[in-house]
Specification:
The chain is about 15% helix and about 25% strand. It has about 300 residues and is an alpha/beta fold.
Length: about 300
């Protein structure tokens, strides 16, 4: 069976509804008038049997329960072979603590991201005798799972919020924020849940991919300000907005990509409402707005 990707969670940190938010989207999600979404995570396979999870969100227990292809196949046997984290953000690593039940799998990350985990002893709950931590160098292909090769590459981003100092660089290039290039047979997919902007070399890498899962945090840069839920802009948080002349919809327009899928959407993003004009604009531009449970194949 060929490459498959299953969106476990389509929302950014906090999910939809966010527990302490009364914005329009969160109210509608609580009412059931728009779909609720859990926090960002993607499951991928190259053969339909062996799966890897990209980013372990705080919602991973519920996500696994809602995904039959990841259910146990025996007393303590799982089709899950590995977990890979693309940065040290809480919404991408907190779920590792749920996976502490003496279940063997390989934990892949760059040296920089592994160091973030090592520096916090709570992650020692992942028993080293069963969970092997493997350090991956950038731009070096490795076997993420059987029949599935991955390559990590740097994308513009920043350190996690809890590691920010007085001066914050939002477009750092290095090991702290990475994308994942996935290859299975002739199929190629790319996963980038966080990205500050799209430089020419990154656009060139994405051109020709069968599927790209891309940072959809905000519709517009000042979205959190105009909705009254925060003071930071998207740029300050290290995220590229969907709309505008410098947004992802415009940046991706000239690229030849089979399927473009937005993931990691903040609870304020109007595209989370399928009846919104912004949702219509995004889909008319050739984008799929990701949602929990959606499976994408080339």
């Amino acid at each position: 069976m060929a490459f498959r990707a299953h969106i476990l969670g389509a929302a950014a940190g906090g999910g939809l509804p966010q527990w302490n938010c009364g914005c329009g989207n969160c109210r509608r999600a609580r009412e059931g008038s728009i779909p609720a979404q859990t926090q960002s995570s993607l499951a991928v396979t190259g053969n339909g049997r062996d799966w890897a999870i990209l980013n372990a969100s705080p919602d991973i227990r519920a996500q696994l329960a809602a995904t039959p292809v990841l259910h146990p196949t025996g007393q303590r046997e799982l089709p899950l072979t590995s977990v890979l984290v693309t940065n040290g953000d809480i919404d991408h690593v907190a779920g590792l603590l749920t996976l502490r039940e003496m279940q063997p799998f390989t934990l892949f990350a760059t040296d920089g991201i592994h160091q973030v985990l090592t520096d916090n002893p709570i992650f020692d709950a992942l028993n080293a005798s069963v969970v092997v931590r493997e350090t991956i160098a950038l731009n070096t292909p490795f076997a993420l799972a059987p029949d599935l090769t991955a390559t990590l590459f740097a994308v513009p981003g920043k350190v996690p919020l809890y590691l920010e100092g007085e001066t914050v660089e939002t477009d750092l290039m290095g090991e702290q924020t990475v994308g994942v290039d996935l290859q299975s047979g002739t199929a190629r997919a790319v996963y980038i849940p966080g990205c500050a902007h799209l430089p020419a070399d990154l656009a060139s890498r994405l051109d020709g991919a069968d599927i790209v899962f891309f940072d959809g945090t905000l519709w517009r840069d000042d979205e959190m300000q105009i909705t009254g839920v925060g003071t930071k802009t998207g740029k300050r948080m290290g995220h590229m907005s969907m709309s505008g002349s410098d947004g992802s919809i415009a940046a991706f327009a000239p690229l030849n990509i089979g399927q473009k899928v937005f993931v990691h959407m903040n609870n304020t993003n109007p595209v989370l409402d399928p009846s919104s004009p912004e949702y219509a604009k995004a889909t008319a531009s050739g984008w799929i707005v990701g949602q929990d449970g959606l499976e994408i194949t080339p």
